[in-house]
Amino acid sequence: MTASKRMRHALVSVYYKEGLDEILEKLHEQGVSFVSTGGTQAFIESLGLPCEAVEKLTGYPSILGGRVKTLHPKIFGGILARRENETDKEQLAEYTIPEIDLVIVDLYPFEETVASGATGQEIIEKIDIGGISLIRAAAKNYKDVLIVASKAQYTPLLHILEEKGAETTLEDRRWFAKEAFAVSSGYDSAIFNYFDDKEGSALRVAVDQPIHLRYGENPHQKAKFFGNFEEVFDKIHGKEISYNNLLDIDAAVALIDEFSELTFAILKHNNACGIASRDTVVEAWKDALAGDPVSAFGGILVTNAAINKEVAEEINKIFFEVIIAPDYDTSALEVLMQKKNRIILIRKESGTPSVQFRSLLNGVLMQDKDLSIQTEDDLEPMTGKQPDKQEIIDLLFANKLVKHSKSNAITLVKNKQLCASGVGQTSRVDALRQAIEKAKSFNFDLNGAVMASDAFFPFPDCVEIADKAGITAIIQPGGSVNDKLSVEYCDEHGLAMVKTGIRHFKH
What we know:
Blueprint: E1 5-6, E2 9-14, H1 20-29, E3 33-36, H2 38-46, E4 52-53, H3 54-58, H4 73-80, H5 86-94, E5 102-106, H6 110-115, H7 120-125, H8 130-140, E6 146-148, H9 154-164, E7 167-168, H10 170-196, E8 211-212, E9 224-225, H11 229-232, E10 233-237, H12 243-256, E11 263-268, E12 271-277, H13 281-290, E13 299-303, H14 309-315, E14 320-325, H15 330-336, E15 343-347, E16 355-360, E17 363-368, E18 380-381, H16 389-403, E19 410-413, E20 418-422, H17 428-441, E21 450-453, H18 461-469, E22 473-476, H19 483-493, E23 496-499
Parallel strand pairs: 2-3, 2-5, 3-4, 5-6, 13-14, 14-15, 21-22, 22-23
Antiparallel strand pairs: 1-7, 8-9, 10-15, 11-12, 11-13, 16-17, 18-23, 19-20, 19-21
């Protein structure tokens, strides 16, 4: 696959012209002639380079307000003609159609226009027709034509011109064709998603430039991340981010976004092993760490407050993989950067998608994110005894945590601090017993603590175990046919129970 072709005639029609001048000058030096439209033609001529107008080649003016410029047989015939096909060559000669060996296109910025909040008509006018047609035609005929489909490919083209002049190999042209179809498919996906307006009538996802990760969930698995990590974070220190780091980072961000007051959390394998809300960041850190100082080793740290030197010195006493915060004092960074592999991220003001995807079997699951956040107004009493003010605060705190814990899950909370959780258990009873045992192992007094469950109690066994451990208030979705059994036990033993009507399974 080394068949070399020389570029002699180029069609150039681009939206973004930055970085194009050097390419055009090198092409001109190599004897390549240009044909172009409107603003691009004016740009080429402003460089002192000759350029033929598309209108002169086709014999037709630009019409319909510029909607039709390049859509003509003299353009597409020159691109699509097979150079080794005698019939094609005869027809080119019969209709005086020049061969076009290079097409440089940069499409109208459709996604940027949508994101800008433009009107519907302005958005429609940024649906490129001629450009996308030129891309597909040139890419289809890659055996004879080189297609440069976006400004992102200006640099690779420049490298070819510097190394080979106007000569390209079949490998070169096939690579550019592959990139071109990535551009066209992504462009069409963006247009479809605009018209679909989140209805989900079909799944069209296009993400460019994946991040190649060190490995997947395990070292023998390959992995990539398709997404714009830099849109969400500034990575200011540390080693390359791994697949497992990304899973934990995603879980950490989702959890911390539940809290408006100053909060610090520690996560391990996507679950919170420590979290607390306090008046100062150092107090929040210390109480979060107290929740499980063993599991915190190698964990992911996240807070919604700036990190100062005082808390940095406390954090620096343990080993952790990643820390996420909205900002860091310079003196804090001097402390945290003492470990060269430690990943330090600054969280940017950036939204995240409202839907989730998961591949399985031979397809993809899509669902709305669980963005439900319960407040005091959402709590429906189930028992005669009502939770007091502090218990309500803790119940809502515990409910946020259980929402972000692997099912079956139980969380135990006291004074806006996670005492312990039981996660990922096949039995809710086992999850509760795990949480109680863990809390006791770290010397938590569960008398007066509250409990949250991610799903209802089919039997009263969990409330009975919780009562014996000192739990005084419980929050759960409710909805079991046997709710009354748990309610009866609570009423008999003086526990308060509320329901939210919202289940929070997480797999």
